[in-house]
Write a structure and sequence with these properties.
395 residues, mainly alpha, Rhopdopsin 7-helix transmembrane proteins, 2 domains, elongated
Length: 395
């Protein structure tokens, strides 16, 4: 296998995987941003398929340059939809349709010009392929210049748009940064192609390799594609990774609470299949809080929380860690009391919210912290032994 073919396979697999992921996400919850993403990835996937060297130049309707032309046309469409997707990452989704129309006013004349130039140039000349080396033919150099100019504008637009949203945080910020670098590589590709064409026309014979596995154009397009794929996927995949981690952390606490109060566990029908990770985490949050607020509430003792906070202060825990340990200890002691049918206390309701839990992701993060303390903290085990020496150990 040649290096060029290996690169093509890696890039195609990456794009196809991203397309399948986003198509599944789009079917589950279609949005304009996801629609733009799916269109961009589908177009790019088709570009990669058409761009493969099958060893026979006339494989498509007997016209050698037709695959090149389709690659260029569909590639420009993919660049446009990438631009639209990036616009939807911003804070003002209502303004995106107008901004997309402005970009479409550039795309459509470009596609029309490219089609006319293709018919007058590569097609009329019967060229074997559309490359920089053939730029001496009538209309071919203009054809390539139009293509490179649009690619450069689109990549600069992606680069500049991502640069404006530096206030973003987390995986979205990382995704935007990666998209920005992908746009920079794409822009560098367009600039390089333009300068290389000029150099060839002037018979300067640039010393670097243009094509092949180590060709500058292939390396730049490979880097641009992989970075764009990573940048588009990180904002969606990253939070789902985090949700899976939260789900694993929540499971022991959720299992103990719902085993004790099985009526509070959701039982979706088997026909619904395995729930999405987002739905599963949401369900577990609701089920945990339902048990805490209703059947287990009378057993929740604020005195246990103060005892746990005292241990945490002696161990120099910060306020957040101390509160998580305190809530975990209260739950562990309450479950122990409920299991042995201990007398119900009259201490009043106990608040189990944490810092920054207005959003379900923040709530999942906080409850996962409490659940981790519930299963792993020595303080919870100590408080449980002090207040309920005959209790079963925490699972």
């Amino acid at each position: 296998m040649t290096g060029a073919l290996a690169q093509q396979i890696i890039v195609w697999c990456t794009v196809t995987a991203a397309l399948l992921y986003w198509f599944k996400s789009w079917r589950r919850a279609p949005t304009p941003g996801k629609t733009a993403m799916v269109k961009a990835l589908a177009a790019l996937d088709l570009v990669l398929i058409l761009g493969v060297d099958y060893g026979y130049h006339e494989w498509l309707f007997g016209i050698p340059t037709l695959p090149n032309f389709l690659v260029h046309i569909i590639g420009l469409a993919a660049a446009y939809w990438f631009q639209v997707f990036v616009l939807y990452l911003g804070p003002d989704a209502d303004t995106v349709p107008a901004k997309a129309r402005a970009r479409r006013r550039i795309l459509l004349p470009t596609l029309a010009a490219l089609t006319v130039l293709y018919v007058l140039g590569p097609l009329a000349a019967g060229l074997p392929e559309i490359t920089t080396g053939a730029s001496g033919q009538p209309f071919v150099s203009i054809y390539l210049a139009v293509f490179e100019l649009y690619v450069g504008l689109a990549m600069f637009d992606i680069f500049w748009t991502c640069r404006k949203w530096r206030e973003k945080r987390g995986y979205l910020r990382l995704g935007l940064l990666t998209l920005r670098w992908g746009g920079a590589c794409g822009l560098l590709y367009a600039v390089h192609k333009a300068l290389y064409s000029v150099a060839v026309r002037l018979d300067l014979n640039p010393p670097w390799v243009e094509y092949g596995s180590l060709g500058v154009s292939r390396l730049l397009t490979t880097c641009a594609t992989l970075l764009l794929m990573a940048g588009m996927t990180l904002p969606a995949v990253g939070p789902r990774w985090e949700l899976r981690r939260r789900d694993r952390a929540l499971e022991p606490l959720w299992r103990d609470l719902t085993d004790w109060a099985p009526d509070y566990r959701f039982n979706p029908p088997e026909a619904a299949g395995k729930p999405d990770i987002t739905d599963r985490v949401r369900n577990r949050i609701v089920e945990i809080r339902d048990v805490l607020f209703e059947p287990l509430q009378p057993y929740l003792d604020p005195a246990v929380a103060e005892r746990a906070r005292g241990h945490a202060r002696r161990d120099q825990f910060d306020d957040v860690q101390a509160e998580a340990v305190a809530q975990a200890a209260v739950i562990a002691v309450a479950l122990a009391a409920a299991r042995r049918n201990a007398p119900v206390g009259d201490s009043g309701p106990l608040n189990f919210t944490g810092p920054g839990t207005d959003d379900y992701r923040d709530d999942a993060t906080w409850l996962a912290t409490v659940a981790t303390a519930y299963t792993e903290s020595p303080i919870v085990k100590t408080v449980l032994e002090e207040t309920a020496p005959d209790a079963d150990p925490v699972h």
